[in-house]
Amino acid sequence: MDRTTKTLIHYEWKSFIRNRFQLLMLAAAFAFGIYAIYYGQSEINMQRQTIEAVTALEKKEFFEYKTSFQEELSTLEAEQTHDIASRPAYAWFRHGYHAILPPHDYASLAIGQRDLFRYYYRLTGMSLHYQLFENELANPVNLMTGNFDLSFILIYLFPLLIIAFCYSLFSAERENGTLALLQIQSVTIRKIILVRLAFYFTVVTGLALLISSIGLLTSGNPLAEQNRLPAVAWITGVLAYCIFWFALMFLIVSFRKNSSFNAIVAAGCWLVFLIVVPALLNVLVTTKFPLSSTTLAGLMRRTSLENENDEEEAREVIMEFLEHKPKLAGSDSLLNNDLLSKAYAAFTSLKDLNSKEEVDSYTAQVIRRNEWSSRFYWLSPAVNMQNLHAQMVKTDLRTFLRFHEALANFHGDITDFYFSRLFWNKPILREDYSHLPVFEMPEAQDRWGAIWTAIGKIMLMAVFVYLTGYIKMK
Amino acid sequence: MRQLLFIARKEIKVALREKLVVSLGIVTLLLLGVALYAGYVSYQQQKEIITETQAEKRKEWLNQGDKHPHIAAHYGTFIFKPKTVLSLFDFGLDAYTGTSVYLEAHYQHGFMFRPAQDHTSMIRFGELSAALVLQVLAPLLIIFLAFGAFTRERESGTLKLLMSQGISFRLLTWGKIVAYSIMLAIVLLPIVVGIFILSFSGIRQEVIPDIAFRAVLLVLIYGVYLFLFISFSVWISLRSATGRNALLTLLTGWMFFAVLMPKTVTNFSESLYSLPSMREFKARIQEDKVNGLDGKTPRSVRRARLEKEYLEKYQVDSVEQLPFNFEGVSMQAGEEHGNKVYDHHLHKLREIFHQQNRLRSIASLFNPFLAVQHLSMALSGTDMYTFIHFEKAVEHYRRELVRKMNGDMAENSRYGEFYGYKAQRDLWQEIDDFAYQTPTAAELLQLYHLEILSLLMWTALVFVLLNYSNRKMKPLHG
């Protein structure tokens, strides 16, 4: 660092600490950041508590089933419990398994769509789609307003901070009459501006990194395996985003217009990136790819056999179902006992089979419309960044779509477990309880490739903007 | 008066020379056009789908064939949330309230499918609606237009000249306010005309009863809101030493009111009054359904009580001797008990919603943006109260449907014969198709008195401030 740079930094520091208003802004940003971290954590903790509660319920339910094998069945109730525990004809629609999407440690920093989607389901062998569409309770007003999480602070507030610090880097000199003094110095104006820009970059980005580190450290262990990459990506993202905004301010300043003009243009850019582009994209997606959930709604209907006393109908339904599942056929006493339960199992499974196409095509439409809109994310680094945050901490739409896919597979495991016993007329044994179906959600493949590319795009844009400013400033 | 118009004319001329401001005005206008067009397209699309599907579900209900009434009550039907025509102007909560609900006996299902669930997290930035343009973007345009109202005169030294010609601050201030108001009115004229054509032309809106009245109110409320911004911007300009200061103050204020405060207040309300999870909510209902709201009267006790009551009333020894099917009566009693329990818990839940939203209403006293946002949603029929009103109408319909089914079962079937009796199409036809109308604007606005008070207070405040500063201001200051 040469001497002039040092002198410049020295004086910038002096004027910086004398400006109460600027210090106040930084303090406010810090306070908001801390509150945002607190808020995010309290939201996610509430979800964790709910998850704990449902897991405890499930444990209790299955504990009762298991113990019913050892107890002497003295009361009617105990006998009923044992029936539910051991007879597949009851068990298949009574045993409830929870499929849970636990929050990532850093979900509290970017709540994303996690307040909008359900993250736990209780599944029985009954029709999957009957169990899928219920929403979590939420106040629509609060959903609309959105979450005050760290992601919001970084994406919305920090650009404003950057604008406030930089919009008059050049123009203020002219307006205060000090420009002429600077021009007669041996350093170029460009260098002066760049050093001052670097100074504020250090201050503001430093603050962003400080808040982020607090968030990352208090929300989970950044060294834990599942947190390491997200933590690094988060920090890199913050850097890239700040670099972009500083580069943009440099470009705006390089036009050497007056302060008000700069402020208007900068505020205009903020408006375009944070409100106009996303709002426009959203409304375009809605109208260009209209989606109607009305067809799915129909799948909720609780239907059953026309007449439960009609054995002929029951047999027909069972045989139709077995065409799809030949493995379940073949028992000698297939149609002799538990006919109604089998028929009902067959009926609800057939219903799922028939509606699968509809549900899949709906999901495909959702993916298609969002793929279309994601092609335009580069138009706004803010949109890009917000989406990245959600992806890093797994609160994005994709994660929930994968969760739904995993749910369907899990439901398949559950029905396989019970139906193989129901249709082969085998009881559920005590031993079976040690290998009950377990919910698993496979990791997304190559999540990180897309994330790094997107961060790279923001960086690239920043470099481009910076270079334009550099040439312009001369 | 002539002087006032003269000042206004000069102000408009100057503003039109500012390329930046003119282009921002054009952009705003374009965005407004896009927003309205997209709103209209999406309204048409949704309306078509909903009308079609609703008719289809009606047909399914009517043609469900002969079956036992209670099975029909389980077969149930579906209701889809209609889009109000004014929702093309303000989408409000439409993306976040569910869109369809399944009605069946015994269970109250929640609304399913929030449209926002079909979007990536980008949806949380908001959708471009005319309301968004007017609430968020138009104020910014005003700020850009008016921040220099006085500071420019001051910085270029013309303020002293004006004063020396005997023009008062009052005249100057109002001249400028009038000028900006006229410019804004011109920019917004197309939308006002559009809304009026829409409301008064033949478009029959079954959902909103008083659409024209609402349109007038919308124009009035946005008029007041934008006037507030104009006056405040001029006032800040009057009080600021330099244009830079005025601009910064105004931008900070805008940021605080339109972005920061609504989110902070809302999230705060969420921490203050927390919601139960769906699982908890349902578990509590289930428990009370089984054990009674007092926790001491289980189903068996309730049933025995009902049986005794009917046996005594009809002077018979067993339920089989009753002249109607006791199962139907018992089922309806169970249904009513379930409803009572559900109502109790739903009321508590809505109370929490209400408390959360009330905090926003109180906050709106300090923030005209919130006030206008609430009023605009209310008038467009996309607010929380309209949604709850709709939910209640749906639940009422469900209860009537189930009651009719159970009543028919009690009347026409015999005890113990569940599959023996089958009702026919004429029973299904007795259930009218679901039709919904929002509450009137007058009814709704009573729920929003804080917001109305807010706008009145802010208007009064701005008049007081302008008046005060106009008197106290000394031209030599500048």
UniProtKB/TrEMBL annotation, chain A:
InterPro entries: DUF3526. It holds the Pfam family DUF3526. PANTHER family: ABC TRANSPORTER PERMEASE, ABC-2 TYPE TRANSPORT SYSTEM PERMEASE PROTEIN. The chain crosses the membrane at residues 21-40, 150-172, 193-219, 231-252, 264-285, 450-471. It comes from Agaribacillus aureus. Keywords: Membrane, Transmembrane, Transmembrane helix. This is DUF3526 domain-containing protein.
From TrEMBL, chain B:
InterPro entries: DUF3526. The chain crosses the membrane at residues 20-40, 128-150, 171-199, 211-238, 245-262, 447-468. Keywords: Membrane, Transmembrane, Transmembrane helix. The keyword Nucleotide-binding does not apply. It holds the Pfam family DUF3526. This is DUF3526 domain-containing protein.
